[in-house]
Write a structure and sequence with these properties.
Blueprint lengths: L2 H24 L9 H8 L16 H11 L11 H14 L8 H10 L6 H17 L2 H11 L1 E3 L2 E2 L1 H9 L8 H10 L13 H17 L9
Antiparallel strand pairs: 1-2
Membrane topology: Single-pass membrane protein
Family: Belongs to the glycosyltransferase 51 family.
Pathway: Cell wall biogenesis; peptidoglycan biosynthesis
Amino acid sequence: MTRLMKRLLLWLGILLLAGPLLVTIAYRVLPVPATPLMVIRLFEGEGIRKHWRGRDAISSHLKKAVIAAEDNRFCRHHGFDWNAFGDVLNEFQANGKLRGGSTISMQTAKNLYLWPGRSYTRKALEALYTPLLEMTLPKDRILTLYLNIAEWGPGIYGAEAAARAYFNTSAARLNPYQAALLAAVLPNPRRFNAGAPSAYVRSRAGIIQRRTGQLGPLLNCVKA
């Protein structure tokens, strides 16, 4: 490998780490203007409906429901939930089906910085950026970022846009069932609709509501 190539690789490595680090520091106080997914969808012909809301303008019901649905150890882990990974592996060995095991922190890192897809390169970068996010931001800020950039339907991003689109209310005024419906569709928001929920979505929302009531201390990083 030539000296020039080594130098280029070094600078590329610095850029891949320093760029997201600086942006993450900025996101401690600044809203996220857009994500790669939003830009991709925009070029595919979809609009962008999003309205940034701070921590205090998002219902605690939604925060708790999303943790219960997506990552019930969010308040305890440091980016990776090794217990959940073990469960995923055991399920794969038992029935040959592989479900997602991403934490909220991993999903936030992916949404903030990376393109959609399942390539090894993207997964490696996600694994790099997740601890960076955890070391730079408090848990409640990571959750606020996630709830503002998550896709909740074609062209619908963030809790405020979703609350308006599906329930004609604000993110701050979501009730427990509405919050559970929004959490229920997160794994596939382009297939399921929180405003016109299928029997499956309604059933999953009920499970999420019960699970939310059972988590107790596991929700101690959620601020109302």
